[in-house]
Design a protein that fits this description.
The complex is a heterotrimer of chains A (about 250), B (about 375) and C (about 220). Chain A has ten helices and no strands. Chain A has about 250 residues and is mainly α. Chain A has one domain: MetI-like fold. Chain B is α/β, with parallel strands linked by helices. Chain B folds into two domains: about 1-240, Rossmann fold; about 255-365, CBS-domain (Roll). Chain B has helices spanning about 45-50, 75-80, 95-100, 100-105, 110-125, 130, 140-155, 170-190, 200-205, 225-230, 235-240, 245-250, 255, 270-280, 300-305, 310-315, 330-340, 360-375; strands at about 1-10, 20-30, 35, 60-65, 65-70, 80-85, 160-165, 190-195, 210-215, 215-220, 265, 285-290, 295-300, 320-325, 340-345, 350-355. Chain C has a single domain (about 10-210), classed as MetI-like fold. Helices cover about 80% and strands about 0% of the residues of chain C. Chain C has nine helices and no strands. Chain C is elongated. The model of chain C has no long low-confidence stretch (mean pLDDT about 85). The chains are: A mainly alpha (about 250), B alpha/beta (about 375), C mainly alpha (about 220). Chains in contact: A-C, B-C. The interface of B and C includes residues 52, 80, 81 and 136 of B.
């Protein structure tokens, strides 16, 4: 099923920033004194930044791995020879997403113990599907007429892949990467539970101790990171996707 | 019948306004097929869609059997008309029977009546009900689908059919066939039909009258013969094509032009010498050899010189036979192909009825032409 | 094999938690369907509105679930419902809305305009069109959206255990807290199984609901 691209980037951005502002205002209004006080302590500030760093580390490594496998799988399965395996492969990869994130984390923990390794593995499993699925869908959606023309001109299959199929599929692929990134950032918050650190530390501690300023100190950055990641990738896609293809919708 | 009275349609407003239809006035009589013809963007489809109020009318009136359609309930209006579109538009989630039954169901017919009607219509469009009733549109070819489309439009037996390039999506071979079948259907049912087309050949074939549009204006509304013989202006004559005489030949039949009392006939038992003398005395190009009223062939000087025996043995068969009902265009084609200036014409039983020649054909075209000049 | 022993011994707890989990998911899904599908149908009339609504829902999706729980806590605590099922169900409904509204909208929008034209030209009213053409053709895609939604919120409901909502996440949470490996695995396995089974069931439903004439 094709997804419509919605509105101008400006409209979506506008909505994003509105929500961001709302989040900020709500957060600040609700616990203004608490949060500002908390963050005015340099130790705490440093701690938040440290956790953010850990968080990003988890995200970065798992995304890198997911990119490699996701793109590779999507491309391989789109080749005529392997197309009949597409359904099965996608379902298996998809299991990683069907199974709740918490359960995946719990399972990796039982195999790899606690720490960042199992967390990265779980995040990797979780992020691969959107990338693989969108890569496959994007490549398959390239009009067969275009590929036929490319073959007629004498391009080799590798060339066609690089110069025709992937550029035309880039839009859809980047959307998949975007979805994966956002899911990843959100799920990485759970990494704290199995000892991987990250901003989830503040959130869960805040819930347990009923200290809202901790909670917000964790939740807000995660949200900001997710929104920022989403926005950055959208910018990236505006830059990378060839203009002609973007205009064609 | 459908009356168009100064019908105007404007899209948009102010500077960007586009006049799609400009003061169009004409009437389609009951039982007539009017083809709206013209290049793309000329407003023919807009006019059709105003007839069932899928587009609103900016100015002017459309009257169906005297009633203004603007005063009627739009839905009721449409339920009383059949609508066939180029993309066919069969609902893929319903069976063939389900598709045909839609309007009768909305009109609350009882089930038995609907079932009977479905069978009746499917036979009418030559789709075996037993086989196709429960199939889905996706299982049928384009031509078959559009036949269902026509059946669906006729389901509630409306007086009026609106057709928007209905055969456009069908390949040319099947298109010919479905056009022929539709003509036969219309001869039987005599509906009032507004038919949009951009194809002059289709228009000539299907229309009782053709309405030619240009940039929203009605340029000419006449029978195909008049349009061919007396185009209103250069736009029409260009649109119709420089070969309009040949197109007109498609409309005339051999029986309209043939010579029923030709003199260059000879009996099969005539001898070669007698025949040769007959030819030279009258300066004929050839003689048609008959046995009774069966055509055996022809003989010319080269067949007869220095020959003995009778014509039966010497006659050369005609490469083609022409019937009284065939269009003159086919006759001309045969003459050009076989380099024969005249052909025998056979009646419906295969017996000799007369001859047809270049001269006959030319005479009838000229007669047609002058007939429409005098009006 | 501690896992199976654990499950055997704590069978009733497991059943209870499963039931709790399903209850939360079911109620949220119901609310989301009742609000989401009509919304999806409604916004097909106005493209601007559609963009705003779906854009808004998209943004909610971007917020990580745990963060949403966290953000709702202080606000809902004012009403005495900071923890427990209320924030969980609110969050589940919010997250389920996007796939449902978006799929409904896209499904109806994607109905071939030629069919809509044919239907209107035949004399169908707006309602009849929706009923006879647009909705039957949209149902498979709507069900696909439901499938995405329900699998997603089964997962989020597991996390909701951390805000006191109960459900199978409790096994995982308690298991990690007490370093009780089989409890963790029991929780993970049960909720995974639940998700996979529901996904398969929805898959079958999707196939059954696709009108015969439209199977690709």
């Amino acid at each position: 099923m094709k997804e419509e691209a919605f509105g101008s980037p400006a409209a979506a951005t506008g909505i994003r920033f509105l929500l961001l502002a709302a989040v900020f205002i709500a957060g600040i209004a609700a616990e203004r004194i608490g949060l500002v006080e908390y963050l005015s302590d340099p130790w705490e500030r440093e701690y938040v930044l440290f956790l953010a760093g850990q968080h990003l580390y988890l995200v970065a490594v798992s995304m890198a791995m997911a990119l490699v496998t996701g793109l590779a799988t999507g491309i391989v399965v789109s080749r005529k020879r392997f197309r009949k395996f597409a359904g099965v492969v996608m379902y298996v990869i998809g299991l990683g997403q069907t199974i709740p994130s918490l359960a995946v984390l719990a399972l990796t923990m039982s195999f790899l113990g606690i720490g960042s390794k199992p967390a990265i593995l779980a995040l990797y499993i979780y992020s691969t599907l959107p990338i693989a699925r969108n890569t496959l869908a994007g490549i398959l959606s390239v009009s067969p007429a275009i590929i036929d023309a490319a073959r007629g001109v004498g391009m080799s299959p590798a060339r066609i892949l690089l110069e025709v199929e992937i550029p035309n599929a880039l839009n859809v692929i980047l959307t998949g990467i975007r979805i994966a990134l956002v899911i990843n950032i959100g799920t990485a918050a759970l990494g704290y539970l199995i000892g991987a650190g990250g901003l989830g530390d503040l959130v869960f501690t805040g819930i347990n101790l009923m200290r809202t300023e901790l909670l917000l100190a964790g939740a807000l950055p995660i949200t900001i990171l997710a929104l920022a990641g989403d926005y950055l990738l959208e910018l990236l896609s505006l830059l990378i996707v060839p203009k002609g293809i973007r205009m064609a919708g | 019948m459908i009356e168009y009275d100064s019908v105007t349609k404007v899209f948009g407003a102010g500077k960007t306004a586009v006049t799609a239809t400009d003061n169009v006035t004409f009437t389609i009589e009951q039982g007539e097929t009017a083809v709206f013809l013209g290049p793309s963007g000329c407003g023919k489809t807009t006019l059709l869609r105003m007839t069932n109020r899928l587009e609103s009318i900016t100015r002017g009136n459309i009257r169906i059997r005297g009633r203004e359609i603007r005063e009627m309930n739009a839905q009721e209006l449409r339920l009383g008309m059949g609508y066939v579109i180029q993309q066919i538009g069969l609902f893929p989630n319903k069976t063939i029977a389900g598709n045909i039954a839609i309007v009768p169901r909305m009109l609350k017919w009882d089930k038995k009546k609907i079932d009977a009607r479905i069978d009746e219509l499917m036979s009418l469009v030559k789709l075996e009900p037993g086989v196709y009733r429960n199939r889905y549109p996706v299982e049928l070819s384009g031509g078959q689908q559009q036949r269902v489309g026509v059946a669906r439009a006729l389901a509630a037996d409306p007086d009026i059919l609106l057709m928007d390039e209905p055969f456009g999506a069908i390949d040319p071979i099947n298109r010919d066939q479905i056009q022929d079948e539709f003509l036969r259907l219309q001869a039987q049912l005599r509906k009032t039909i507004a038919f949009v087309s951009h194809d002059i050949h289709e228009a000539i074939k299907m229309a009782d009258k053709i309405a030619i549009f240009r940039e929203g204006r009605l340029v000419q509304f006449d029978t195909p013969e008049i349009i061919l013989m007396r185009p209103a202006d250069s736009f029409v004559s260009d649109f119709v094509g420089a070969d309009r005489a040949l197109k007109a030949l498609g409309l005339l039949r051999v029986k309209d032009a043939m010579n029923r009392e030709p003199r260059n006939l000879a009996r099969a038992d005539m001898t070669a010498m007698e025949a040769l003398k007959f030819i030279e005395d009258n300066n004929f190009a050839h003689l048609i050899v008959l046995r009774g009223n069966r055509v055996l062939g022809f003989v010319s000087r080269k067949h007869l010189k220095f020959e003995r025996g009778n014509l039966e043995a010497l006659a050369e068969k005609f490469p083609e036979e022409l019937g009284v009902r065939e269009p003159l265009r086919d006759a001309l084609s045969a003459m050009l192909l076989h380099d024969l200036a005249s052909f025998p014409v056979l009646d419906d039983n295969g017996g000799f009825a007369g001859t047809i020649s270049y001269k006959n054909i030319q005479k009838s075209i000229l007669e047609l032409y002058s007939e429409y000049q005098d009006e | 094999m501690n896992l199976f022993v654990f499950l055997q011994e704590n069978y009733s707890t497991a059943m209870y938690l499963t039931w709790e989990h399903l209850w939360m998911v079911g109620l949220s899904l119901l609310i989301a369907i009742c609000t989401g599908v009509p919304t999806g149908i409604f916004i097909t009339r106005n493209k601007q509105l559609a963009q705003k609504v779906i854009g808004g829902a998209n943004v909610i999706m971007t917020v990580p679930s745990i963060a949403l729980f966290g953000l709702m806590l202080p606000i809902l605590a004012v009403f005495g419902h900071g923890l427990g099922k209320v924030p969980a169900i609110i969050a589940l409904v919010l997250y389920a809305e996007l796939p449902i509204v978006r799929n409904t909208y896209v499904a109806i929008k994607n109905v071939d305009p030629a069919l809509v034209d044919a239907g209107k030209g035949m004399g169908m009213s707006k309602w009849q069109l929706l009923r006879e053409v647009e909705i039957p053709m949209a149902v498979p895609v709507i069900i696909a959206g439901l499938r995405t939604a329900v699998v997603m919120i089964i997962g989020i409901a597991a996390i909701a255990a951390y805000v006191g909502a109960g459900g199978l996440g409790v096994f995982i949470q308690q298991g990690i807290a007490r370093s009780h490996e089989s409890m963790v695995l029991a929780g993970a396995l049960c909720v995974s199984l639940l998700a996979v089974v529901v996904d398969l069931a929805m898959g079958f439903l999707e196939k059954r609901v696709t009108p015969r004439g439209m199977k690709p």
